[in-house]
Amino acid sequence: MFDFRIAQIFFLLLCILSTPGTAQSVAATPTTDSIAPILLTPFVLPPSPAAPQDVQTVLHISTGEWPPYLGEHLPHHGTVALLISEMMRQAGYQVQFHFLPWARAYYDTAAGRYDATAIWMQNNNRLNDYLFSGVLLETQLVLFHLKRQPLVWQTVSDLKNLELGGGFGYSYGAEFDQAVATGLLKISRVNTTEQNFRRLVAGRIDTFAEEIKVGYHILQHLPDELAQQITHHPTPLLRGENFLLFPKNLPNSARLKTLFNQQLTQAKISGQYQHILQRPPLTSAKTPMPEQKP
Fold first, then answer.
1. Are 170 and 235 in contact (CB under 8 A)?
2. Which of the 8 DSSP states describes residue 135?
3. What is the pLDDT along the chain (294 residues), one digit of tens a residue?
4. What HEC string does 139-189 produce?
């Protein structure tokens, strides 16, 4: 006896199997043996063409406290940090600053733990360890003293009868350093510029040298009754050039130096360099008194 229900089911199966999309799906259905490999195969999205342009390489730069130029708690980490960040951003890099004691910043970077270190004046020892950028900052060291005790000097030898203050590891220029080494000048050193200001007021030293903007930035954070007693001599002890240093033992240093110098030159021509350095002093209530910069 012919069963119409079986015929109908058979007809529906033929229709299903004759549909191209469904037949393809049935044919592509994995067997039990092939399920596991398919499930374990990772699904990877193709890279976006815009991704390389959106992701910047991070440069790690060591430095220390030297406000208003450099400071962990200053806006943009200080004017020099802002300048470095802008130069490298235009070259396609993002900068992350690491604030350390100055000696550690120098030696850790020389050992290749950081991409660069900021900022330093030039001497023979540093030339052995680093590639130097173009001139990043010009500074001047001046002699701070009490207003009630005028300072009279023209040459380094004029300072020989004075009690001089200084900072550990700090260089005051070849002539001054040589006079200290030979015993012509007497100097007592402490850790911070604030300590030297307090020693001035206490009468323990007669004068000490510090970069002029750094000195007055620190005075702003000291009590008025102390700060108002202090001034500086108009004759600079030293005019110096400061640089961004790239460790010689890293293979990428020469290329980074070239890229940085290109951006630095363009910034000086366009006026961007002057605009950044002439910004109002960057201050913060959280700014700590800095360790002395070597």
1. no
2. -
3. 445 455 555 555 555 454 444 434 333 333 334 333 333 333 333 333 333 344 569 999 999 888 999 999 999 999 999 999 999 999 999 999 999 988 899 999 999 999 999 999 888 789 999 999 999 999 999 999 999 999 999 999 999 999 999 987 677 888 999 999 999 999 999 888 899 999 999 999 999 999 999 999 999 999 999 999 999 999 999 998 999 999 999 999 999 999 999 999 999 999 999 999 887 554 443 344 444 455
4. EEEEEEEECCCCCCCCCHHHHCCCCEEEECCCCCCHHHHHHHHCCCCCEEE
* Whole-number Cα distances in Å, 75 to 16, 69, 101, 105: 71, 11, 20, 21
**How far is CA 4 from each of CA 7, 17, 18, 76, 90, rounded to the nearest angstrom?**
5, 20, 21, 85, 80
Helix (H) or strand (E) holding 238: strand 238-247
CA distance 206 to 210: 14
Q: Which amino acid is at 166?
A: G
Which residues, 6 or more positions from 164, have their beta carbon under 8 angstroms from its beta carbon? 185, 186, 187, 188, 205, 206, 207, 208
Phi/psi-derived region of residue 271, left when phi > 0, alpha when psi is between -120 and 50, beta in every other case: left
Strand ranges (E), 4-74: 57-63
